[in-house]
Amino acid sequence: MSNVNVTLPPDSVQKPTRSFPCPLCSTQLELRETRRVKPYCVCNSCGIQIFFRGQKGISRLRKLLDEHERLIGGPATPAVVAFNQLEQLRTQKSDLERRRPFIFSDADLENAIAAIDRDIVRMQAILSDLSGASKS
Ligand SMILES: [Zn+2]
Which residue range is the domain that position 117 belongs to? Predict the structure, then answer.
């Protein structure tokens, strides 16, 4: 299982994506590295960035991820990360749809729903790309 060769998009890193849950919406966020090789992640929907700058924090993060991977049997693949984000978007969309007024439509709300719709389509395209690239 660990030797399965997954084809990744050329600009992505070789190792599988590790993720960290957003403290606000619990979407699994892709962990990236700053130029100084410190981990950070960004939640676009909450508009927050999390930087792990301290040596202790970084080693705690690694330990946490290692333990998590041991439990779930491996790091989250880009497909899992994309799928989690897709699920999160769907939740956000239905939350907004529930706030629709009964009679008059709210243009701002409709715009927000349309924007999430576009994100959903974008995520679906990413997932479909991933499936095409990794199917053997
Ligand atoms: Zn979030």
Answer: 78-131
Looking at 31, 48, 72, which one is the last position of a domain?
Answer: 72
Distance 124 CA to ligand 1 centre (A): 19
Q: Do 60 and 36 lie in a common domain?
A: yes
Tell me, what's the pLDDT at 65? 86
Task: Say if residue 91 is in the same domain as residue 121.
Answer: yes
Distance from the CA of 31 to the center of ligand 1, in angstroms?
13
- Digit-coded pLDDT (tens) for 79-107: 887 888 898 899 999 999 999 988 888 99
Q: What is the residue-wise DSSP string for 99-116?
A: T--SSS--HHHHHHHHHH
| Residue type, position 127, single letter | L
Q: 84: which residues sit within 8 A by CB, 6+ positions away?
A: 19, 27, 28, 76
Distance 37 CA to ligand 1 centre (A): 23
Residue 51 Cα to ligand 1 middle (Å): 14
**Residues whose CB is under 5 A from ligand 1 (ion)?**
22, 24-25, 43, 46
Q: Which amino acid is at 1?
A: M
